[in-house]
Amino acid sequence: MDAATTTWTNEDIISDAIGRGADMALGSGKDGWCLSRWRQFVGSYDLPALPDPTFVVHIAGKKVKTWQRDGWSENPSIPGCATIVPAGQPTGWLVDGELDVVTLSISSGELKATAARDQFSRMRFAFTDPLGVALTRQVLGELYSPQTDERTVYVGALVNALKAHMLRGAIGATAPAFPTADFSAYRIHNVMNAILKNPEGDHSLEAMAADAGLTSSHFCRVFKKATGTTPHQYVMKARLDRAQDLLTSSDLSIATIADQLGFTSQSHFTRAFRQYSGQTPSGWRQTVQ
């Protein structure tokens, strides 16, 4: 059967494109959604147009880029990011290593409201979404616990909450009247966006906590609950991802890259890079070149 056949579901098409089935999947025909977990696939993939819009949550693993008009996206998706793939749009993906993502497909029939249709009219790649990530992690935690009738009801309620968030979350996040005086997910979004945009910046714990309007200890707890990682680990991962890009696309010396990305020394950078990628910076550069 042709993968573009309209009777195929999103999950059928994704499985065919990557050459393996979902690690876990559940769905609700009544509520019009299907949630799947995909793990451990590496390489570049061309994904045909999907019949239904999809919300992708990057749970763990390496960075991912998407094909844009003139090449692979400059800024990658990393754990803690989300992506919206509209129906009817072919996409290309470059996976840098082991990957762990969750997809939530929504029946196109659910998009009756004008606002919901607008939400999925274009692709939105690698935006920060602490609430979406937190809800997804909670769903996964429940799915791997002993099955009971109560758990089934609870998981359905969680996924429906994630679906509701998917349908209106980004709209709420950009509304002019979105609250900023008190702590909200909006402030965590700002901190994460600042790190991804400028990983080499001086992202001290005190400065990030101040930006979020929280004490340092409270900020650490909230940040880890939202992203699954500590603020320091998130900053370090963003810097090392940027280092991989610079080693691949520039002739800058390793010492210069270490200095630009805020490492205290070249030896500190080399130790961190080896722990993250399994290779030294020079070994990585030789491999990719």
List the helices and strands and how they pair.
Layout: H1 10-18, E1 24-28, E2 33-39, E3 43-47, E4 54-61, E5 64-68, E6 71-72, E7 81-85, E8 91-95, E9 99-106, H2 114-119, E10 124-128, H3 130-143, H4 149-173, H5 185-197, H6 205-212, H7 216-227, H8 231-249, H9 254-260, H10 266-277, H11 281-288
Antiparallel strand pairs: 1-2, 2-9, 3-8, 4-7, 4-9, 5-6, 5-8, 7-10
Helix pairs in contact: 3-4, 3-7, 6-7, 8-11, 9-10
Write structural notes for this entry.
By secondary structure, the chain is of the alpha+beta class. It folds into 2 domains: 10-173, Jelly Rolls; 179-289, Orthogonal Bundle (Arc Repressor Mutant, subunit A). Helix content is 46%, strand content 19%. It has helices at residues 10-18, 114-119, 130-143, 149-173, 185-197, 205-212, 216-227, 231-249, 254-260, 266-277, 281-288, and strands spanning 24-28, 33-39, 43-47, 54-61, 64-68, 71-72, 81-85, 91-95, 99-106, 124-128. The chain has a 6-stranded antiparallel sheet with strand order 1-2-9-4-7-10. A 4-stranded antiparallel sheet has the order 3-8-5-6. Strand 5 and strand 6 (71-72) form a beta hairpin. Helix 3 (130-143) runs antiparallel to helix 4. The protein is globular and about 55 Å long. The model is unreliable at 1-5 and 170-183 (pLDDT under 50). Residues 189-287 form the HTH araC/xylS-type domain. One of its GO terms (molecular function) is DNA-binding transcription factor activity. Keywords: DNA-binding, Transcription, Transcription regulation. This is AraC family transcriptional regulator. InterPro entries: AraC_XylS_family_regulators (IPR050204), Homeodomain-like_sf (IPR009057), HTH_AraC (IPR018060), HTH_AraC-typ_CS (IPR018062), Tscrpt_reg_AraC-type_HTH (IPR020449).
